[in-house]
Amino acid sequence: MNDHQKKLSRRQIIKFMALGATVPFMNAFIGQAQAKKTSKETVQYRDKPNGEEKCSNCMQFIPGKTPGAAGECKVVEGSISPQGWCTAYAPES
Ligand code: SF4
Questions:
Q1: 84 neighbors 47 (Cβ within 8 angstroms)
Q2: Ligand 1 and 60: CB distance under 6 A
């Protein structure tokens, strides 16, 4: 191994060390950002559908244990009815 290869190896090691210190920090930061949900009041959530639009056919909905059970929403806090609706409604594609 020549000097150039040794220098390169040290650089790579330093990069990997820096990356190793950065990734957990970024994961924690992203996790916090994802954990923040908006309030039901902010998006005017209600337990009734808006025509054909309802939580059960919204891409943000996380179903409960049964089809009629309350679930969760990826962006709105609290228990969410599959028959509910809010202004953040986004149809499933
Ligand atoms: S974004 Fe609104 S409509 Fe969609 S699942 Fe969440 S609460 Fe329901």
A1: yes
A2: yes
CA pair distance 38, 50, nearest whole angstrom: 20
Is there an atom of ligand 1 within 6 Å of 85 CB? yes
Q: What is the Cα–Cα distance from 86 to 76, expressed in whole angstroms?
A: 9
| Cα torsion angle, 80, 83, 44, 28, sign | positive
pLDDT in tens, 11-59: 665 565 665 665 555 555 555 555 799 999 999 999 999 999 999 999 9
Taking the model in full, what pTM does it have? Answer: 0.67
Domain range holding 75? Answer: 37-93
Residues 24 and 64 in one domain: no
Same domain, 18 and 44: no
